[in-house]
Amino acid sequence: MGLVLPFGDRGIERYVYRVEEGDVIAIPRGVPTWWYNDGNERTELVGIADTSSGERPGYVQPFALVGGKEEREFGSVLRGFDREILARAWDVDEQTVTRLLESQNGTGIVRVREGIEIPEATEGEGNTFFGEFVYRVKRSRADVRVERGGELHVVNRNKLAVLEHLNLGMTCVKLEPNAMCAPGWSVNAHKVIYVVRGSGRIQIVRDNGEQALDTEVREGSLLVIPRSFPSAKIAGSDGIDYLTVLTSDMPLVQFLAGRNSVFKGIPSEVVARSFNIDEDLEMKMREKRCEEAIILPSGSGRERERRRRRKGDKDEPHYHYSMVDASNEFLQIDLGF
Predict the structure, then answer these.
(1) What's the domain of life for this entry (predicted)?
(2) φ, ψ for residue 102 (rounded to 5)?
(3) Which residues neighbour 277 within 8 Å (Cβ) at sequence distance 6 or greater?
């Protein structure tokens, strides 16, 4: 993948990346990109763009620099200029301009001659304005890892600084069979969820308590969850992998279950009176899921305890929460979406 940034010497500073499965790639608005698959396998990309400040909000409006001699919807923007203008700008004759504009019929994705030589990856050397554009999820440590539950990677501006220019963030979630991502809602971002592998179930609730959606999802499913709409995700029998793009470079989330549940941040007496239950029942509920957070493995607490005893790791933690460097201080934070 190559990028062309709006500054620097184009003949010297070239930004070429070798990208692979699992990479998160953040591209600022208006930055030209090119892609080339030099392998023997099909490459699939999932792209999500923020259109809120575009000419037509809700519509993605990319434009091509080359190709599309007969394409009306996605042809090169060069076709809109008079050939005399382009000839003057490039200091060539109009015959050369015609050849450039009419030699490539394809647009978007095209096949090229075999043996094409692509420049070696530079990994963005010398770029100090945007920082890096690629975050390699598969080479990084998970922010949350739960035995028999799954793992969660969070990609925010602390890990990929360019996201601050896009005001977007991302999470990559892998749930083991029948595990759950705790019910919760995003405080400051809308969500776009795309299922990469497996299957499961997602429930979404409106602010008035009505169920907005209860649906089965599988590979290729895409859905949107508005800000402050609580939701729960449950993996099917074969597990589920999904990614979530959020409309904030530092998204915040509240949960309704687990160690970091909002109910555990409210005094026991207040919770009991609010539910109109006795405090014994409230304490019984409070003691549940006192270790697990964000990703909840399947089975009851007793079943999970028996499994740990059989493995001989009763006293060993079966979850991991990362320490994230923020403002030169190490803070323990609960991350997840």
Answers:
(1) Eukaryota
(2) -110, 0
(3) none
Residue 19 tokens, joined: 């990208």
Identify the CA nearest to 96 among candidates 83, 82, 78, 79.
83
Q: For Cα atoms 76, 81, 86, give the angle at the middle one, nearest 5 degrees.
A: 100
* Separation between Cα atoms, residue 124 and residue 118, nearest integer Å: 16
pLDDT tens sequence across 130-175: 778 899 998 999 999 998 999 999 999 999 999 998 999 999 999 9
Backbone angles phi, psi at 285, to 5 degrees: -65, -40
The tokens for 89 are 């700008």
Angle between helices 279-287 and 268-275 (to 10 degrees): 120
Please, which residues bridge with residue 319 across strands? 146
Residue 248 has pLDDT above 80, yes or no: yes
Q: Crossing angle, helix 94-102 and helix 83-90, to 10 degrees?
A: 110
Is residue 301 within 8 A of residue 308, CB to CB? The reply is no
